[in-house]
Design brief:
By secondary structure, the protein is mostly beta strands. It is built from 1 helix and 26 strands. A 9-stranded parallel beta sheet has the order 5-8-10-12-15-18-21-23-25.
Length: about 350
């Protein structure tokens, strides 16, 4: 007989004070469990069946967040439960988020549970923050992390973007379900900004805004594979950009179904001076889509009264951002049927 696989240490959030009644705020208990697991060198943080309400939670290295069937992690509907003091400022948009990690390795989210941001328009109106700031929390934001696994699970109802990964490497996303079609606005599915070595497969993604969105506000997206996904979006099923300073290199998208995309299905854009190269898109079936394929090489030429970062430093507030026109080459699209 082979050696028995060492079982991970298990840290049950109920042992750290979580209740799961859908009323009590469990942020402190859940964070305590994650911190204990991380301090012990890693293991599994178990979320048993129940409804656990929480504000911002920070995940840490070597932690697996594992959900039993019937387990729901519910976002608090009180804005004050999403503080930003301990978080790195977001490179794009505001910093508030539900699940957060930075500079961490070996994080896994798995199981048969639900992560529900409960981000309704009533609870999180647009631009209702101080001075008209838009402070709606993302569902998840991980920055500069490596070895990430998203396996199973349903992610739903973010107040703002869904799953936002910035400068992350070695990411495997499989068999997830994203339900973000019409709960608020700007509800992107996956935003992958400057990420490398990503495999996204076997998933259901239904978003209001862009469903699978590659961004490069600074670094390029490189070595990205998307396959066997069923995707719908009001805006775009597959989008490169619009943030495109770093560009998109070595991307392969195959055997996907894109449907109910009134504003278009596949949009490949370079508008911030980046480079798009070696992109393969094949075996795609599209039903009920606006413009099936849209490719744009341009220079935004936007003029701001203050700088907003798209990878180029603003030298004169009255001039455009100064990004030149980048390049697009080596785009291969084959075996596509669209209605």
């Amino acid at each position: 007989a082979g050696a028995e696989t060492a079982r991970p240490r298990v840290f049950n959030i109920k042992d750290y004070g979580a209740i799961g009644d859908g009323v009590a705020l469990e942020t402190e208990a859940i964070q305590k469990t994650i911190d204990a697991c991380h301090a012990a060198g890693g293991g599994m943080v178990l979320v048993p069946a129940g409804d656990f309400v929480s504000g911002t939670i920070q995940l840490k290295s070597n932690v697996t967040l594992s959900f039993d069937y019937g387990a729901s992690l519910l976002g608090s509907q009180d804005q004050k439960d999403y503080p930003t003091e301990q978080l790195r400022p977001a490179r794009e948009g505001n910093s508030e988020c539900f699940l957060y990690a930075e500079d961490a390795n070996n994080i896994r989210l798995e199981g048969l549970g639900v992560i529900d941001g409960r981000g309704s328009r009533e609870a999180f109106p647009k631009r209702s923050g101080p001075g008209g700031r838009d402070n709606r929390p993302r569902l998840l934001r991980f920055e500069n992390c490596e070895n990430l696994t998203f396996s199973g699970m349903t992610y739903k109802n973010p107040a703002f973007w869904g799953i936002h990964l910035v400068d992350c490497k070695d990411v495997h996303i499989t068999a997830v379900t994203l339900q973000m079609r019409d709960n608020n606005s700007n509800n992107d599915g996956f935003d992958l900004d400057g990420c490398e070595n990503v495999l996204l497969e076997n998933s259901e993604i239904h978003s209001h805004d862009d469903a699978i969105c590659l961004k490069s506000s600074k670094n390029p997206c490189r070595n990205i594979v998307v396959r066997n996904c069923n995707v719908s979006s009001i805006t775009a099923a597959l989008k490169f950009g619009t943030s495109s300073s770093g560009g998109f290199i070595d991307v392969d998208v195959s055997n996907c179904h894109f449907f109910d995309c009134p504003m278009g299905a596949i949009k490949l854009q370079i508008v911030d001076g980046g480079h798009m190269e070696n992109v393969n898109i094949s075996r795609i079936v599209m039903d009920n889509v606006g413009s099936p394929i849209f490719i744009r090489l341009a220079n935004r030429g936007r003029i701001y009264t203050k700088n907003t970062y798209t990878g180029t430093k603003l030298l004169n507030a009255k001039e455009s951002e100064g990004a030149g026109v980048g390049s697009i080459k080596g785009i291969r699209i084959s075996d596509v049927v669209a209605q």
